[in-house]
Amino acid sequence: MFDYPIFEMPFIGHRLLFAFDAILHVFISHGAAVGGSIILVLSQWLAIKNNDAKLDALSYKILFTFFILATAVGALTGIGIWIHINIINPAAIGALLRVFFWKWLIEWIVFNVEMILLLWLFLIWKKHSLGTPGKKKVYKLLVSYAVASWFTMAIITAILGFMMTPGNWLVSYFPAKPDYLASLLNPSWFPSLGFRTFWSIAWAGSMAMVLSYFFTRDDLELRKKAMRLYGAVLLGCIPFIIAFGAWYYAQFPQAAKELFWMGMVTRRFAGNPEYATYVTVILSALVLLGAITFYTKPKQAPLFLGIIMLIGSMGLIGGFERVREFVRKPYIIYDYMYANGVRVADVPYLNKTGYLKHAAFVPPEFREVTDENRLVAGKYLYQMQCRYCHTVNGINSVKARTKGMSEEAIYHRIGSLNSPATPFMPPFTGTDDERKALAAYLASLAEQTPANVYKQKLDEVSK
Amino acid sequence: MTDFRIIPGDIPLPLPTMGLEFMEPFFHGLLIVAWVVHILFINVLLGASLASVYFNSKGHKEKNPIFDRVGYLLTTPVTISENMGALWGVAPLLLVSILLTPLFYSSSILISPHWLHIIYGNVVAFLLSYLYKYTWHTLEHRKTLHIFIGVVGVALFYTLPLAFMSNVQLAMTPTTWTYTTNFWDALLRPDTFFRLVHFYLATFAVTGVFMLVYGMYKRRSKDEVDRQAGIVLTRTGKTWFIIPTALNFFVGPLVLFSFPDYGIEAFFANGYFWGIILTVVLALYALYQLLKDFFNDDIPDRRVWTVVAVMVIAIISMASLRHGMRMGLVKPVLEASHAKTELFQKESMAAFEEAKTKPKTYTQGDTYPGKTMAEKHGCLACHSERVKIVGPSYRDIAAKGYSPEQIVELVYQPKPDNWPGYMPMPPMPQVPAEDIKVIAEWINSLK
Questions:
Q1: What is the residue range of A383's domain?
Q2: Is any Cβ of chain A less than 8 angstroms from the Cβ of B99?
Q3: Which residues of chain B from 273 to 292 reach within 8 Å of chain A, CB to CB?
Q4: Are residues A325 and A363 in the same domain?
Q5: In a domain, A2, yes or no
Q6: In the Cβ-directed half-sphere of B369, how many Cα atoms lie within 13 Å?
Q7: What is the value of ipTM here, to two decimals?
Q8: Do A348 and A333 have their domain in common?
Q9: Cys staple from A36: which of A32, A279, B246, B446, with CB 3.0 to 4.6 Å?
Q10: Any CB–CB contact under 8 A between B269 and chain A?
């Protein structure tokens, strides 16, 4: 956006940089914290009920692993999502914070409770053995921890839901007046929360099964008990995941539904939406194969099946997050702000007065396009409007996308970015001169190979 | 008149004050308090992790189990304060993000990608600190390796303030921004340097106070090694508090006078001078209290709690001074930013209303329904009537003599082999077949 400085992530691009942190966070927060705490409540309940010291000891080992993952990686990458979007799309996170400030503050307070409970739980667990009154306290702490971690997810899910289905959240555009309650109770909040809750539990179940495999190498009876328990949890979640998933999908805006298949298969295979079905079926089959074998034959099932179960789950989760991010395009906040930080309502004004004119961090000499500064102005426009999704030479590179196109062709293409050919792209924003400058810059990229630079210099010298 | 070269715009949404007058001062108060909690945990994290490695290697070298125990005991506050420190950093981040949006976001981006170090560097340091803690007994006979793990983790923790300090210092001093300012520019400035020195010294002082309290509890332990470790903690705590605090009396003024002049003027004009006096008096009193019992290993509990209470007040006072200096520095640019944003919104809204009244005009004429349809579905982005743009011109397509049905099929499943040398066309399944037939008629009319 034009109000802020430009940070460019070369080669891997912003999307992959962000996805790396975000997906790490999702795997760990949903598995080790939200789903993991629910799983541990179940196995502790069973251990206390049956006075089962072995199951209690196994639960502690799983808790220890989850504790390390959740505190060192889960919590920090969660803050990391914020830090990343701060520098990638400040306009979007700035807007979200203004609308969701109080919910975020409450989330932070609950997050505090969650962390304190986890640290406390972890420090006292071993001090109280089964059958002592202290164990009841440990169990109560564990239940509170599970409720707190679920609650933090519930609030963050509201924000994610808001980004795709904001509902009637803006009472008036100028002066801006948000409806804080409507933004919270947006249409996709409950279904997406249900969807996330159940797949978190299932995912934690698969993690617990693989961990149990390692922790029960010399106790096959305990392994059988653990696999039966966690396997039943995983399999039992599946109908709920499907039901909530369908309800969630029904809340998608129409345009988002139309992008669904492309979101699943990426643009390269846009002509083969059936690939999405194949991949989903294969990944689900991997999960089911692992889960069912571990459930029915806990003593014989090899580790290999557990690993493919994890891979299948991670594929499905990663795929879901990708699709959710993709179908929201061209917006970052639906109907309010485009993915590149331009507010929809500002487009006519920017088209009239120019985009660069308002760019605070572009030196004044480049805010008006002239014959001399055309290429540099074009580069600034690329950096401010395109680099959210594109790179110059790397992933989704503009150089590859404009290969073989003349400057005129690029100019035409820029004019209809948000067209049915590429409905997921925001429109170009700016004056006709700026559009020409961007076209000139993009066309120049093809010529700027090292060999060409030397050839040009050679031409100049020969003259 | 101070020169602000760059004035970023603000987020055009209201502060979430819920219409309550006192909410904005409350936000500032909450920011100070949450930040103090955050920084105290961070101080203990940095100080205790370093002390733990120090006593670990001292115990190893001198074959002294008491020092080894001190090192081990210190890993518990490290675990707690690394978690709580990160957690209590979130609230200040949340508040700074709404109160100082244009400044803090801009400085974060200017020092990127290094700003991301506070995540990735932190994750690695965290994992190393857990590894260090939970291998204390398993690596008992491989101490060199164990100490090495500790040293790497501590070194990594000590690099995190570099990213933080450059960011906050840059956010506070918008007069220093240029179009090319980067992380190293911000880090290698005298003002950032003095603040870092002040911060690291304060880290040892705060850890010193923490050790006094921790040592006080351990001295009561029934376990003899723990009791001895408590005495070591008490002795170390005194030294760690006294020396850095004394040094900071000299570093403090260097920090104060390295800010831009207009900030210092606002600082004194707003009466913060008395805050400095208060902080200095409190710190001197704490020093006096400790010096009285400097050679007494059984320092009375009351003395310890007095030092804690006095220092907590001193730190809150210092944090308020810091916030006051910051607000004085950023106020002119924040006001300009708000005014700029309001003007932009007003003009943008006028253009938006105007655009709503105008019907959408097609650039290439409206004579043929097929052409309008092609425009509507975005075909003209890549195809034109006569000229090759991205795809072939419609006249060239017409020359191939496809039937409308064939064209429908080709739109749904393009065959790039038919057009070598062109960019392959993506399938367009979203265009209804009836519309394509209308477009096809127009294409074929161009023959």
A1: 344-448
A2: no
A3: none
A4: no
A5: no
A6: 7
A7: 0.93
A8: no
A9: A32
A10: no
